[in-house]
Amino acid sequence: MKKILVTGAGGFIGFHLSNYLSKQGHQVTGVDVHFPEKNTEKPFKFEAIEGDFRDQKLIQKTLNEKEIVFHLASAHLQISLDKSEYWDINVNSLRPFLELSKNNGVQRFIHVSSVGVYGNLKSWPADEETVCSPQSIYGETKLAGEEVVKKFYEEIKFPIVILRPAWVFGSGCPRTSKLYKTLKKHRFVLIGKGENLRHPVYIEDMMQAFKLSMENNEAIGKLFVIGGEKAITTNDLVNAFSRVFNFQGPLVRIPYTAGKTIASVSESIFGLIKKEPPISRRTLEFFDTNNAFDISKAKKYLDFKPEFSFESGLTDSRNWLEKYA
Question: By CB atoms within 10 Å of each CB, which of 27, 55, 273, 303 scores lowest?
């Protein structure tokens, strides 16, 4: 049994991870500024503490006797969030957190980044050596955060692992839920041709990667891209929903240039009233960004073996989506 701290434990991935580790017999403390109150079939099986991981007193207390840290907390999809907050949460907070972890005897620090650091790939599949060109403040700050973690490792050999998950989907995933609802209600609008690539990884396969990164000594000091066995097109993604749930395909398709204009105008209008726009340049990345990755390194050093295709993952999530989405 390990004593484990998970930051971002109220989010989709962090909540799954905290419960998963608890079921594995570990003693888990999860920290987040907010925890879900409904829309979940999985009750809390871990100690949940509401708070900000940047709170030094809180983290000092929660790190007591912890052996493993999974750091998932980050500024992510908040369009209205000021850029300075992205930098503070995703970058500037990391060094103090790493130092506290080291000083409290943490034996391994797993830092969760994102394939958002790559931006729109010009060629694929990409791997850990591919040059990154982030196209959002999220991707830019996640990449900078990786550098902070790498530097800390290089300086003192503090045992870290960096993971770059592709699109993690499944029960509890806001994007999976949104896609399900819009397709069910015939409100899904396909922007562009739908031939761009997405690289899904099912939540249960992501749990496998977390477990391996915690247990495998070959992982220390390394960076890994974590994805499913293969990438699929946006059209393939929509068709899989149609097959699993017997949905009709998209009724509305608009050219990409029109979608870009709508996103820009929507951001401007909703920005004035400090609300999240229904469509933004960030969400438009779903239709114009190519994500396809080579996961050979994770297979080699972690012995990572993804078991779910996108369609089988949707099928496994069907009960949750039909009940809660």
Answer: 273
Which element (helix H / strand E) includes 245?
helix 234-245
Amino acid making up residue 169: F
Q: Which residue segment(s) compose the domain that 92 sits in?
A: 3-172+199-229+291-308
pTM (global) more than 0.90? yes
Residue of 193, 188, 179, 213 lying closest to 302 (CA atoms): 213
* 88 Cβ contact partners less than 8 Å away, ≥ 6 residues apart: 54
Torsion angle defined by CA atoms of residues 157, 108, 305 and 202, in that order, rounded to the nearest 10 degrees: -120
Element (H, E) at 183: helix 174-184
**CATH code of the domain containing 143:** 3.40.50.720
| C-alpha dihedral sign at 116, 55, 66, 221 | positive
For 180-202, write each residue's pLDDT tens digit.
Answer: 999 999 989 899 999 999 999 99
The verdict on residue 279 lying in a domain is no
Which residue from 94, 96, 112, 115 is spatially nearest to 104, judged by alpha carbons?
Answer: 96
Give the total residue count for the chain. 325
Q: Give the residue, 280 or 58, on which the prediction is more confident.
A: 58
For residues 156 and 151, give the distance between their C-alpha atoms in angstroms, rounded to a whole number.
Answer: 9
Phi, psi for residue 32 in degrees, rounded to 5: -165, 160
The beta strands (E) that lie in the chain are given as 3-7, 27-32, 47-50, 68-71, 108-112, 160-165, 167-169, 189-191, 197-198, 200-202, 223-226, 232-233, 252-254
Give tens-digit pLDDT for 5-28: 999 999 999 999 999 999 999 999
Q: In this structure, is residue 242 part of a structural domain?
A: no
Contact, 149 vs 162, CB < 8 A? yes
User: Domains in the chain: how many in total?
Assistant: 1
**Residue listed under structure tokens 């293969």:** 230
- Tell me the CA distances in angstroms from 118 to 53, 60, 134, 252, 293, one per residue in order: 26, 33, 5, 30, 10
Residues 304 and 297: their CA atoms lie apart, in Å, by 9
